[in-house]
Design goal:
- The chain has eight helices and 19 strands.
- By secondary structure, the chain is an alpha+beta fold.
- The protein is elongated and about 70 Å long.
């Protein structure tokens, strides 16, 4: 693999494999020096997993901030230790809410709320992952986190299951939402199916299945399945560098002057210091603060 290759893979992760294990397979297959992913998916969840290659890993935080869309299905009447089908049953109820009652309470979860993460999560407690402590059957508590839910829609309600579509922000736990919806309806529930449909500009319709990706040749991979580093960043202030001297100065972490008239998107306030991404031939080479017409790099990807 060429070391200066950078960009994104729009991967569709299957169930029964962790996000880390999925990218490890890709790294080994294509001999990638550095690889990372944005927005971890549970092993039992499937869907879009944005993958960054080499220097593009420095941009992962910007993808993590994007809104995400999920489809999920829950089973009423049972709460489990993991809030999904893998856990042991903790509580049981015969109460199955009807469609009308479900729709009435959904707006309670919109906007910013404090959400208690599931105990089967990667959150650290005294230096250990919560799921590891849960496996050892040790009692512990987690703190609530501020999360954002933009949209929630009931898609179907049939016997003892219901399916939903949501759009949410960073750090949102679908399993916690399922648990909390049930509690609001005086019953129990857990997730039995979870699919991530979208992360920012990464959508399931244009993603590639992990098994299909691992079957292709290296040359085909480089030319057909790598999205440019700038193409997957949504609604950004970007500037194309043209002068070799600017490229050299940036490589040393120096400030450069930019022509604000050539910005892809004009800043809302010319006096405000804005984050700007600098590109060269479609690749992000730096991002940093723009003050008037002076660019100060925060990260350099060259």
């Amino acid at each position: 693999m060429i070391e200066d290759l950078q960009g994104w893979i729009n991967l569709y992760k299957p169930t029964r494999i962790s996000s880390f294990a999925a990218i490890k397979k890709i790294k080994r297959k294509f001999n990638i020096k550095k690889i990372g992913h944005a927005g971890t998916l549970d092993p039992n969840a499937e869907g879009v997993l944005p993958i960054a290659i080499n220097k593009t890993t420095k941009l992962i935080s910007f993808i993590n901030s994007d809104l995400k869309e999920y489809f999920f299905k829950i089973k009423w009447g049972e709460q489990t230790t993991t809030d999904d089908a893998e856990g042991e049953i903790l509580n049981f109820s015969n109460k199955i809410p009807n469609e009308e009652n479900i729709k009435i309470i959904l707006n309670n979860f919109l906007g910013y709320t404090d959400q208690l993460p599931p105990k089967a999560s990667a959150i650290k407690v005294n230096g250990r992952r919560a799921y590891s402590i849960l496996r050892d059957k040790i009692d512990f508590n987690l703190n609530k986190k501020r999360v954002f839910l933009k949209k929630i829609q009931l898609l179907a309600s049939d016997n003892n299951t219901a399916s939903f579509n949501i759009i949410c922000g960073k750090g949102f736990y679908v399993r916690s939402l399922a648990r909390d919806i049930a509690h609001k309806l005086d019953t129990y529930a857990h997730v039995i199916e979870l699919k991530r449909i979208k992360v920012g500009n990464f959508v399931n319709k244009t993603s590639i299945l992990l098994d299909d990706l691992l079957k292709i040749r290296q040359s085909e991979f480089e030319f057909n399945y790598i999205h440019s580093s700038i193409s997957m960043l949504d609604d950004i202030l970007a500037y194309e560098v043209e002068e070799k001297r600017d490229l050299y100065d940036l490589s040393l972490g120096r400030k450069i002057f930019v022509n604000k008239n050539k910005l892809i998107k004009q800043p809302l306030n010319s006096a405000k210091r804005e984050i700007v991404f600098l590109s060269f031939k479609g690749k992000i080479i730096s991002f940093g603060k723009l003050s008037e017409d002076l660019f100060q790099p925060q990260k350099v990807l060259t």
